[in-house]
Amino acid sequence: MKRIVIDSMVVDLMTDTPGLLNQVQEVARRGLLVFVVTHIIQDQLAAAPPPRRDQLLATYDALPKTQIPTRGLVLGLSRLGEARLGDGSESGVSAHDVRPSGNMGGLADALIATTASGDADVMVTGDAALLAKARKAGVRCEVWDLAQFIAFVEAAAK
């Protein structure tokens, strides 16, 4: 079973690609994947404007997932009780190592990467900057783009 951490762009992809969510659910039923999620992705999806927010959250709610705390805590971003204290460095990389930009979104992406590094087999992102930064920083899991994720799901669904 692959434990997969995703960013919100993956939920966008599953929402907009006919049949992909069904394939993901089938692959999960076969015991080949589970999404490891934190409050970060749900918070990002909930910030989308309606009616898109409702579509994204419906897709997210339909995912096979296990909720865990983030590896690292950022004041103003992390939820109390849903984040581990520190900068995530116990995962092998710190939030500073993988932060792709200087804004709050960059901090959210950094927490996604530190959590993936410590708790997942694969991190999937549609964000080229995060993808490059995570690979360069040496996260302890595989780092896939959206095309690699789709290829995995399609192969596993056969």
Provide the β-strand percentage band. 5-15%
Looking at the structure, the CATH topology is Rossmann fold
Main β-sheet description: 5 strands, parallel
Number of helices: 8
Please give the oligomerization state of what you see. Answer: single chain
- Unreliable spans are none
What CATH architecture would you give? 3-Layer(aba) Sandwich
Structural class, from secondary structure content?
Answer: alpha/beta
Radius of gyration: 15 Å
Can you walk me through this structure?
With 158 residues, the protein is of the alpha/beta class. It has one domain: 3-Layer(aba) Sandwich (Rossmann fold), CATH 3.40.50.1010. Helix content is 50%, strand content 15%. It contains 8 helices and 7 strands; from the N terminus they run βααβααβββααβαβα. A 5-stranded parallel β-sheet has the order 3-2-1-6-7. The chain has a two-stranded parallel ribbon with strand order 4-5. α7 links the parallel β6 and β7. α1 packs across α4 and α2 crosses α8.
Q: Tags for this entry?
A:
single chain; 158 residues; alpha/beta; two-stranded parallel ribbon; 7 strands
Outline the fold blueprint.
Blueprint: E1 2-6, H1 8-16, H2 20-29, E2 33-37, H3 39-46, H4 52-61, E3 65-67, E4 70-71, E5 83-84, H5 95-98, H6 104-119, E6 122-124, H7 128-137, E7 142-144, H8 146-157
Parallel strand pairs: 1-2, 1-6, 2-3, 4-5, 6-7
Helix pairs in contact: 1-4, 2-8
